[in-house]
Amino acid sequence: MWTTTFVLTFLFFLIQLGTGFSILAIAPTKLAAVCRLTKAQFIVLGFTVGASATGILLGGLSLFVSDIWLQFATMVVVSCFGLAWSWPNWGPGRDETRTAATWCILSLPIALLTWWWSFGAFSSFPFADIGADVHWMKTAQEYADGGVINPYAAQSYVDLRSAVAGALAGTLGLDLLRFSWTYRFLSILFFLLASYAFVQGVYPTSPRKWIAFFFAATSNAVFLMTNGSLAVASSVVFLGVLIGNARCDANGPSARSALLLTVSAGVTLLLAFAFNNNTLALALLMAGLFLLRIPSGTGSSGGVLFLGCIWPATLLLAHRGSYLFVPIVLASWLMYLAIARMISAWPSPSIAVLRLLSFVLPPIILGLVVCVAGMRFGYIPSMSANDTFSSITELILGRRIEGGEELFLGSGPLVATIELGRTIGPVFAICTTLGVAWWWMTRPALRASSGAIGRHGDGFVTLVWSWIAGCGLSLAVLSGFPFLYRISTIILSLFTITATEVFCQLLIDSGPFPRYRRALIATAVTLLATALVVLVYAFPWRTDLPFARYQAILRPVELAGIALLVTLALLTLIQSRRVYTYGLAGIVGLGVAVDKVGLSGINRSFSYGALPDHTAVVSHYNADELELARWLRENLRKGIILSDPYTLGIVRAITGAPAAYLFSNLDTVNETVAKRAKSVVRTILQPAEGDQRLAHTCSLIAPLVGAINSETFFQMRRADALGGIMRSVRDTPAPSQEVAQPPSDVAASGIPEIPPEEAKSTIQNILVTGENAWNLVAIITPRTVEWTHLAADQRLSYFPSAAPMEPAIIDALRAGPFPVLFANRQTVVVRIPCSR
């Protein structure tokens, strides 16, 4: 079963990659050479295009073709065409086989280790953290059962998993729960490929790229491919492509080319923001690729437009966070050009400015971190810049930062410090900072035999640029502006280049290194990592700390890493230059990896809270709730479910059933909607007369369900609007159900159009009796009962309750006007017969 899941997961990536290649095939094949794209960079671009485009194309195809097998076969054909047509641009040649083998030798074990400490150590199949995966799994299961992708479920972007995973589930039987495990491992491999594509841009021919890739792989902070993480990873590769093109030109790109690229990217951002439609954005992207086929499109101006318009457009298609990523990448690239021009005019007083910035920025960052820590522990009065930031968000987004909203959850220096800290880690930050200080004190002045100071090479530009740009962006993130911390991956990539340059210039380029200095460096990194593991990561100061039980899970991995560090430290004493160089690189990379493992255990409590007693896995559901979800999957053919958001999460993911209210994340349910839903549950549980309780419940449920139905109508504007968010869980009835199929279960195609008012009336009166009736069911668990008593600013524990349902509640439900459909140790499912 797991072998099948691995094969289907690999097929998932191939389909999206091939679809992206098919779209890129619209443009001239020479553009890849004009833009100097390496094969790894071309693969990243192709997947970025195909990840979102596949979902859009399958969604459009499902409106006209009812057979999911035909839809799937069509996309396979399109993908195969792209893979075959673009083979010269991505297929490895004979001289690249060794490079590919080296990448695999490094990547596979690193990816496995990263998968373990980021996911596998905290999970036990079938239980896992799928709280953030609810929406794509629900959409995928819904699509697998009915053959129509719900357009309303896409919301602001098309999730890159739901369409292809749903097609594989509906045709080849992909298990979505197992897929969520294998998908993570292959996601990490893709991010490692993106890291290699980035360092290829910075070091096109230099052997430094393998050291840079090793540092990037061991410090990788992205573990799951979502639309946002794909966009930021492709943004990093985009930066590498821009740097690579600048380095290949003798004097860098001309001012005209740089201005044209910047302006075209800005126009692309404005157009995408104005249209705000994924399907239209894809159509414009394809039109832009076609326009590049005009004769002048394969020249240098065509390459500039390709990089300025096409790549940013693909990023915007993947995720709205690219409105932030693209300007950051362009600003970093322009800073590189500016610093390169400064240093090319050697001698120049600007070098002193760069030196000053290199020494001043780190203490400022440290000061901000200390201030945030002081405010967190009450030593410094708390300060908030939300009023200042609200003026910016109101101008750009048309809304202010208000408490309880998602925008508020992503703001603040504390959140930014935590996110930036766990992305970079103390070992990497300390070692890189000390290395830069050492380098400035020993290496910046290069003198010729005559004593004159000579010009610095590309290494000087690369190191100074990456360090100053990384520190400057870190300061911006620590300001606490909402969701600016999402550029942390870009910052880490810049610091990776800094670390590579420091390592190579101090330990490789300078010739044989004295043994005592090698031992000093190896010992310092090993002791730093060991001190963090022993004093912070592996052994808690107090057993009552929220992260104490998380630390115990990762302790064996951390201690094994420390033992390996000691072994590598001994290798640095060997006289062979190759051996001690690899040993030192291994110590730095492994020390950073051990640091990331320890941070993972610390940060779990920030995301999920303390791990409850007798709980060994990170999961918001347990065996009873999984049993409930699978029972509903098999028996509830047409149902709208109502419960607390955590229970709704697992039920929607397994069944694909619609919910009585919508939410984007488990802890960001709209307060007004939550109050209505809580009132319904409380009324069901209250000890009142049966008819009175039923009447009161139905009066409360009508506006809750009516609102979502109205939204569905205006989003879909289709006669079979019930085939969208109110789609049935299964197309064929269970053995205990009637064979007759209601019209709402018929596939989308072939249904005649009906007047809009009649369609709207059908949606609003969905709970009436008859063949179109839907079952409204309420799921009651101990957590649901607890949820109804929470205040607006309170949240449930991420972990499910271990206590059984109180017998008194079960007895009251059985004696009430709501038929009990299912019950186990912790869950009760009742039908709300509002239609009678």
Structure description:
Keywords: Membrane, Transmembrane, Transmembrane helix. The chain crosses the membrane at residues 6-28, 40-62, 68-87, 99-117, 181-199, 211-243, 263-292, 299-318, 324-344, 356-379, 423-440, 460-481, 487-508, 520-541, 553-574. With 836 residues, the protein is mainly α. It folds into four domains: 2-214 and 225-344, no CATH class; 346-510, no CATH class; 512-619, no CATH class; 623-731 and 754-831, no CATH class. Helix content is 64%, strand content 2%. The protein has helices spanning 2-24, 30-34, 39-62, 68-85, 87-90, 97-118, 134-146, 162-171, 176-202, 208-218, 227-248, 255-275, 278-291, 300-318, 322-344, 350-376, 386-396, 406-409, 413-424, 426-442, 458-478, 488-507, 515-537, 548-571, 577-608, 623-635, 645-655, 671-685, 690-716, 756-764, 782-788, 807-815, and strands at residues 639-642, 775-780, 820-823, 828-831. Strands 1-2-4-3 form a four-stranded mixed sheet. A hairpin with a 4-residue loop joins strand 3 (820-823) and strand 4 (828-831). The protein is globular, with a radius of gyration of 28 Å.
